[in-house]
Design goal:
By secondary structure, the chain is α/β, with parallel strands linked by helices. It is built from 20 helices and 11 strands. It has a 5-stranded mixed sheet, with helices on both faces. Strands 1, 4, 5 and 6 form a 4-stranded mixed sheet that branches. Helix 1 crosses helix 2 and helix 15 packs antiparallel against helix 16. The longest helix is centred in the middle third of the chain and has 22 residues. It starts with a strand and ends with a helix. 25% of the residues are buried.
Length: 502
Amino acid sequence: MKETLVSVDAEVSAAAAACPDCGNASTRVHSRYGRTVSDLGIGGRQTLLRLQVRRFFCDEQACDRRTFTEQVPGVTGRYARRTELLRGVLEKIALALGGRPGARMSRRLAAAVSRTTLLQLIRALPVPEPGSVAVVGVDDFAFRKGSHYGSIVVDMRTRRPVDLLPDRRSAGFAAWLRAHPGTHVICRDRAGGYAEGARLGAPDAIQVADRFHLLYNSTQAVDRVVRAHRKCLRDRPEHEVVAQPAPPTTSDEGRRAQLTHQRHAEIHALASKGIGTTAICNALNLDGKTVRRYRLAATADELLTDPATRSRELDEHVPYLAERWQQGCTNAALLTTELRDHGYHGSERSVRRLLQTWRVSAVPPAALAPATFKPRQVTGWIIQPAGERTKHDQAELSRILQRCASLHTVDRLVSDFAGMLRHRQGQHLDTWISHAQHSGIAALAGFAAGLVKDYEAVRNGLTLDWNSGAVEGNVCRLKAIKRAMFGRANFDLLRRRVILAD
């Protein structure tokens, strides 16, 4: 039978040992006894180190200790059942994997311990005090999305997390800043809670708005404008479209438009009186996200967008059908048979319906299918730098911008704003805000108004080199740790794993 344990016998050869209390060396031996500690596995087998240790007398009269046991530096500690090397390895495993996964890994390393032992090792580790942090980064993370949030604080110079806070309220962040004075720069997102907490806790610190969030907020504004001008994304007029014509507006859509206008007027009427979002939600029985979406829209028409046309399998074969129709072939069964050879798997009935629309239409079908782009695709083209667009994307975007003056204005303003972000040209912010407010585009004017409310932080973000990239990276790592813990651990354990992890 294969032996599963490796035993190593050893004894200490030093002539003297130092008292752990007074530090004086002693050579007078009191007694000897055997001590067993676990060590790293050898050859895939669990290893036990059997030490012969001595107990010494302490001859120092001023010392309260009469006897003590010698320790082997770097190997043993008081009451330790594992060598310091094995304990260090288990601590690394516990911090990286947690309880159950760490216990499975320890068995593979021939140093099996339980999950509770690993968690105890984490909780026994000392957490370093952050002290004074000159440049602080802060962001929130979700314990439970939409319900309970916490905050992570990062030292931007070392790019390491220094603390976790159990909430994201301004009072908690302000209290942390007061407890750790010396902060000169605070990198944050555009949340009002952190802005207020920074103002209260470190009034002399420079606040820097994160450039990623500025670009993200501008993208949201562009997306609202593009969706409001969805009709301008069509490549050709509606009467030239080859596919089936859009159905007429139904009574349900009419009622939807009427309800949208009525709800928009009610929400803006209450907001103009200074009533907050929560009170409006309770008064109109609406969700908070719905109320915020209506408040951001300057007009109800921005909320009324055409429903996206559902793609069909026949759409990609329309050019071929149009060409055959112009050649004089109008038989649905024959055309369906030909389409089968081109990979069509739909029904003959769909082909017959399309041909019927062509028969009753006064406009002959064109051989090219109209190009209709999704709003999200056009938004991406506008946000993307001109030098990074492909020739095809640039050509398609230029055709769209020629048809819509509003989208052309949006493209110009967003390009200027992105240039300020990339080249740190915060001195042009005032001019850009003025142009956006007088552009006549409600979404961009609202975005500019938000920049004015957080003007100093936004200008610093467009001027200084500091950003929240290191904070976002630590938030991603924190999410991975939190999900691996399955929500079973307490806040103190999560805090230790995040701060102490390599």
